[in-house]
Design goal:
The structure is a single chain. The chain is mostly beta strands. The chain contains two helices and 46 strands. The protein has a 32-stranded antiparallel β-sheet that branches. Strands 1, 2, 3, 4, 5, 6, 7, 8, 9, 10, 11, 12, 13 and 14 form a 14-stranded antiparallel β-sheet that branches. The longest helix has 8 residues. It is extended, with a radius of gyration of 37 Å. It starts with a strand and ends with a helix.
Length: about 725
């Protein structure tokens, strides 16, 4: 027997090559170092090292106090404060047996830290044994918690855990413990380690009361078949409605796409409910399909929302077919739909084809149906574009409930166009900031039933800037056009915009915008009828230190009337305090409108925000206060906080909102008690900072979904 003793550092970098002889193809080099001592047994091909052991093999890095490395079997035995790192994953334990060649092993007394997206803290794992195989970690008799204390406030005791790095935790036999008291049990649970958290929200039972549902217990059971099939089964019991059941399923069909489908049913009550939803996505090469659909039926109404789109995208073609249908009897638009498609194709250099068509409808107080289509060919060469189009266009204002547009539709049969952008006077001259356009076609307008030819030419000056001084900036643009119609009709329009920004120094800035449009003649059509415009908008701003102010108004030279003046002043004497006043003034009548004072105060106390917000709305022309709003939040010590949020309407002498909330922080959990004195409603929630935060609550009136975080936030006044 021959031994070689090392008293400093032993590095084994080439023994792997010696062990496999000439068959060292794509194997990883194994490097081992031991700071205190190390020796190598030649006959047994065994290396033993002690003291600050470090092992590196590919993306696997191991540290510990003691190591044995058998070259023939390629096995490592590491003990004493062992740390195993593979990529971004890290496990710590006391004893590790690991096969470098096969990537399998067994780890005892293990602890791990796992980051879960959107979780409020990392997930701490502890287990008796971990089996490593094919990049996965199988754990037995483990414990999971997000509480970072040595004796956590809560934890999940599990029979078996499978960790798939950067994918998910698959957990079997889960018991939730609050301290040492077991509260809930799940036979199966999946926690994602990527961005699919919303698909796997861990579900505790929901217990509560609602005036429509009565007392209820809601249960959600997660299931996981494989990566292509998983979801949740719901089974609920209501004292007033009976039983409710449903499911939410996530699926993947490989090359045929993936999607979600679900349904929920309350069958045995007078207030029956049935809801279902389905969504699917599929793509293959240049093709892509997306569809989302939902329906909900109750005794007195049905709502439907369905949208689908099939698209094609290649180097020369961009096309799609799409459709949408909505039905909601509780809105002004009881039914609305739109079906259509587009086809855009590059036929050659500069030559494009554009085909668009759609059928749109709305059913409200009246029934509206519209058919729009466009067939257009354009040819572009340099800065010039020629076009030929056939089009039917409906006025989109028809879809607005109660709208009464002056025209309904117009047909272009056909329309020829030419456009020149940024022309040059000579081939070497600077481009002019202009656009020239000529359009000719035959048009038929409804319901006026006017049919006529129109030839229109226009010249536009693109926006230009001029700074005569460092503190003065002018911008200007304009457009002149003339249109000739069949017969003696003609319409000419000149429009221009002139803007001035003047800095006077001392934080004072004036902005003026002048807009004028002059019209000669008249169009026989309504869709292109123009009217004269001559307006001036003024705004004056001041900013100096802690005080800022602004005022704005407008003047119509044609009617001789001023627009409403808007005034605002803000004073910030410190970083914590803000005072502001906003007001409206009717210059024509010489009366004040609404005046809105606001006070905001914020500072830190015991690591928490102290907030005071008081605002009011005063109607000066009626000499009455319309609204007073108060929001107060103050900490009490380092773990308590009290919030009050109220709105009072003095002219009605009643509160429209009023809620006091008390929060208590228990390290990894928090308790909230809220009382709404307007609705006479009480709400309670216990939030566990888990996967993600889980609120458990009870509401004395309408009930709070213990897992519908938006529902809880809306009730207790917590911002998301």
């Amino acid at each position: 027997m021959r031994r070689t003793w090392l008293t400093t550092v032993f590095v084994l970098a080439i023994l792997w090559g010696l062990a496999v002889g000439g068959n060292a193809e794509a194997q990883d080099t194994v490097r081992i170092s031991a700071a205190r001592s190390g020796w190598y047994h030649v006959e047994e091909q065994l290396f033993v090292g002690e003291g600050e052991v470090q092992i590196e093999a590919g993306d696997t890095f191991i540290t510990g106090d003691y190591v044995e490395w058998r070259l023939q079997t390629e096995e490592l035995l590491v003990s004493g404060s062992v740390v195993l790192r593979q990529g971004e994953n890290e496990l710590t334990g006391e004893h590790l047996v690991y096969s470098v060649a096969q990537g399998v092993g067994e780890f005892l007394d293990v602890e791990a830290l796992v980051d879960v997206p959107k979780a409020t803290s990392p997930v701490f794992l502890r287990t008796e044994k971990v089996t490593i195989a094919e990049g996965k970690y199988q754990m037995v008799n483990g414990r999971i918690t997000t509480c970072d204390l040595d004796r956590p406030h809560f934890h999940l005791a599990v029979n078996e855990i499978e960790v798939r790095p950067d994918d998910k935790l698959i957990i079997k036999g889960v018991t939730y413990y609050e301290g040492s008291i077991p509260l809930f049990y799940w036979p199966y649970m999946v926690i994602p380690l990527d961005d699919r958290v919303s698909d796997f929200i861990m579900s505790l039972p929901v217990i509560g009361y609602s005036s429509t549902e009565g007392y209820y217990v809601k249960n959600a059971f997660d299931y996981y078949i494989n990566d292509n099939a998983y979801g949740t089964i719901n089974l609920d019991l209501y004292s007033k409605l009976g039983v409710g059941y449903g499911f939410k399923h996530n699926y993947s069909l490989g090359k045929f796409g993936s999607g979600k489908l679900g349904a929920y049913h309350i069958p045995f009550s007078e207030n029956k409910k049935l809801s279902a939803d389905f969504s699917h996505e599929w793509s293959s090469g240049p093709w892509r399909l997306v569809t989302t659909n939902s329906v909900e039926e109750t005794n007195d109404k049905r709502t439907i929302d369905s949208r689908s789109r099939l698209s094609l995208s290649t180097a020369t073609i961009s096309a799609n077919v799409q459709g949408s249908y909505r039905e909601n009897p509780g809105t002004n638009q009881k039914k609305s739909w739109e079906y259509g498609g587009t086809w855009r194709q590059q036929l050659g250099q500069g030559l494009r084809l554009n085909l668009t068509g759609s059928v749109t409808g709305r059913e409200g107080s009246t029934l509206v149906r519209m058919v729009n289509y466009l067939a257009e060919t354009t040819y572009t060469r340099g800065n010039q574009t020629w076009g030929l189009a056939v089009e039917q266009e409906y006025n989109p204002d028809l879809l607005e409930e109660g709208a009464a547009p002056t025209w309904r539709s117009v047909n272009r049969m056909p329309e020829l166009s030419w456009r020149l952008s940024n022309p040059r006077l000579a081939s070497t001259s600077t481009p002019l900031p202009m656009r020239l356009e000529a359009v000719a076609g035959r048009y038929h307008e409804f319901p006026s039933d006017v049919e006529d030819w129109r030839v229109r030419g226009s010249m536009s000056l693109l926006t230009q800037y001029w700074r005569p001084t460092p503190s003065t900036t002018f911008s200007y643009s304009g457009d002149i056009s003339t249109a000739r119609y069949g017969g003696d009709n003609q319409q000419s329009v000149f429009s221009g915009k002139l803007n001035l920004t003047q800095n006077f120094g001392g934080g004072v800035r004036l902005t003026a915008r002048y807009n004028e449009q002059m019209v000669w003649g008249a169009s026989p059509f309504r869709f292109d009828k123009s009217s004269a415009i001559r307006t001036l908008n003024l705004q004056l701003n001041y900013s100096g230190g802690a005080f800022t102010a602004s005022g704005s108004t407008s003047y119509n030279f044609l009617t001789g009337e001023y627009g409403a003046a808007a005034l605002q002043g803000v004073w910030r004497p410190s970083g914590s305090l803000r005072l502001s006043v906003s007001a409206g003034y009717d210059i024509n009548q010489g009366v004040w409108g609404r005046i809105v004072p606001l006070l905001e105060y914020t500072r830190k106390a015991d690591g928490q925000d102290v907030t005071l917000r008081v605002g009011a709305r005063y109607r000066a022309d009626r000499s009455e206060w319309e609204r007073v709003e108060v929001q107060v939040k103050t900490p009490i010590g380092s773990t308590w906080a009290v919030t009050y949020d109220a709105v009072y309407e003095p002219y009605r002498q009643e509160f429209t909102r009023g809620q006091i909330t008390v929060d208590k922080d228990f390290h990894c959990r928090s308790v909230t008690l809220a009382y709404d004195h307007v609705r006479n409603r009480i709400a309670f929630s216990l939030t566990i900072n888990a996967f993600p935060s889980l609120p458990l609550g009870w509401d004395s009136d309408t009930g709070v979904s213990l897992f519908d975080i938006e529902d809880v936030f809306d009730l207790i006044g917590v911002d998301e």
